[in-house]
Batch of 3 targets.
Target 1
Amino acid sequence: MDALFMRRTMKLPYCMVNGGNNKDENMYTVKIIHEFIHGPIWVYGPDGVSVWEYPLIHNDSILTTLNEKAADMFDGYYEFDTHDVPCWFDHEKEKAEKEIMLDLITQIVARLNEINDGSFVVEDLESERLRAL
């Protein structure tokens, strides 16, 4: 089963991760960070718990397209049952394509800032990691 199929067909449980401190306790936090089978856009409620749907973001066709492109690209760095291990990450491919990914992340952050109605803050945790590759 490949990563793209898994991401698009599996219903994953809520991610109970602490979303960090928001500037306003009623604001959402949108974190930009890559994870397997998930695009780089992660939305956390005011309580710090990841939420699956945030209409302002998830109903935006531009963000959806950019998020899927970045997710497909990142998931493509994983290989299964190769290199004598069950799951292998191709760091060299990621490094070779970092400028493309940085461009996608920049577009995502710009679009989030464009549609932001003041109900969320954006934390880009991915760009710095990518630049350091």
Note: The chain is about 40% helix and 20% strand.
Target 2
Amino acid sequence: MKITINENQLKQIVFESVKRIIKESLGKINPRICIPKVRGGWTEKKILNYLKNYSSYSGLHSSARFIAEFDDVNEFRSHLFWHGSRYIQSKLKPSITFGRYWDENNGGGGYGDRYWGVSITSHKQTASIFSTGKGVYVHPIILAKNAIVKDTPEYTDSCEICEDVLIGLYTEGVDAVRLGSRSEDEVVVINPRAICNCDDAFEYFQYYGMDMNSIKEPTDEQLQAILDACKEYVEAYKTKPQKPLKPSKPSRFVNIDPYEMLSDEEYNKKLSEYEKELSDYEKKLDAFNHSEEKLAWDERTQALKNLMRHKESVNENFNVTRIRITWLADMGRNKEMIMNNLLRLRKARNVGDEETVNNTVLSALRRYPSYIQFEVIG
């Protein structure tokens, strides 16, 4: 059956799409803004089509928008979750939307199963075991402030959120469900638009020799710094400032042909023209530096720098350990190569030397006790 759409219907469809995009980019986070109105109720096929078309938010800008809506650190922490994955991921969506080959190798919590939701947990240590392979990437996930989360103590595993259960949850308008197993404190997100993956703030842990104590949760002070930076950034971004065009400086002292012979009068005339252009340029530059557009842009740029600085400082505190070398084997002339390439140390070379290392280097050091022994000092 062929369906025809007249011009007025097409205009209405485009208008609704543009209106939804504008609301999503300027207003408060609405996890259900992209969910379509369905005729005849939800079905498995309709839900699958929605999940294939929409994934989670991701990136620094979206993360700042999600975080800026929280009133205080406690609310921020209650919406901060973690997702463990074998690979670096950006935009998340349920594994049911991918092919079976992808699921067998990457998805399904490491067991090859296909799920209707994205599993997240409030404990970073728990997220670090939600993967297979020799290591895991742990991504910080922000749950939207107004996301609807339903407690489902009758379910203890994400595989129990099957098609029949999912249809009922979509009909109720639920975005995520909290499973009954409190040991993992697992939340299954069935609406990807209710979460944001801070994909540039992930951590990597190698399983071999991994010390669970090295997986640190953020402190209240770190979260407060991030919350303040996000609010500052979003406030500066409200006016959607555009980068103003800086006036161009005259490119030459005197614009003349090097093979052209000029009289003194002609040379002085061109020199005065250049000085006039330079004077006009300096006036334009002064007006540019004091313009509202330039000040708004500088405020937004500084807010972004502050946000990046706080994010990087938190990442450094999350993922580092201070060690001191207590014993070294005799490596002969290969010492520098072994220390640098195998043990991955950059500065420490002798007994008593100290170095700050990340979890990948820490795992490498624990793998080769015949070369090095050390103690953790911080």
Note: The longest helix spans residues 292-318.
Target 3
Amino acid sequence: MDIEKILALLHKLANAKIITLLLILGTAAYFIHKNLDFITEVTFKINHSSDQQTQTPPKNESNLYSTIAVVTDLIPLQFDIPSYLLITIKNNGPANANNLEALVDTGKAKVNSLDIKPKDRCSISSGTKVSTEPIRVICKVVNAGESIYIYSLLSEATFRSVLITSPNLYSPVIVKDIENRKEEPSGITFADVITFVIEGTAAIAVILIGMYLLGALINFLEKLFKA
């Protein structure tokens, strides 16, 4: 191999610096992607999520039962006006949920007002008075794919739990929220943050060192063959 071919090869190797830079960007993007849930939870976490507990039926019996999903919408901030609590109860099927009962325990929060939808199949059994009495809503049927809504104004921005029962459920659905969860430790600890920072710094350092060594090697070879 003559000198010109060697120099041409070195120029190709020099282009590897660009490739290395792209690798840095790609590695950084991959690192962020793998830790996106962590980053989002650290940056934007608000005590707004519910903890839904239930049991799933065996696969060969899953088509015999209803699958209920409960979403609670409550801003955990106290204002001088009543706080709203919107509970969405959706039947994801495949079976209809007959005689569905929703029991909402608002804990120390008093119910100032209450409304439900749809009213043609659902009725309020208790919780209509201004008190801490649990809200009880009974629905004749919630068809597969349909939702019911419980909207209330509370004296405090908190509630304790939501319990959903129906003969068509494999097991009751229990949702615990702010009042029961506020004393629990956050899912993100200081050790998690330190580990995240160390791993990210180490990954960037390894790439930069590799890029520096590659550049030094290319410069050395260029000087060697030009001499």
Note: The first strand starts at residue 51 and ends at 53.
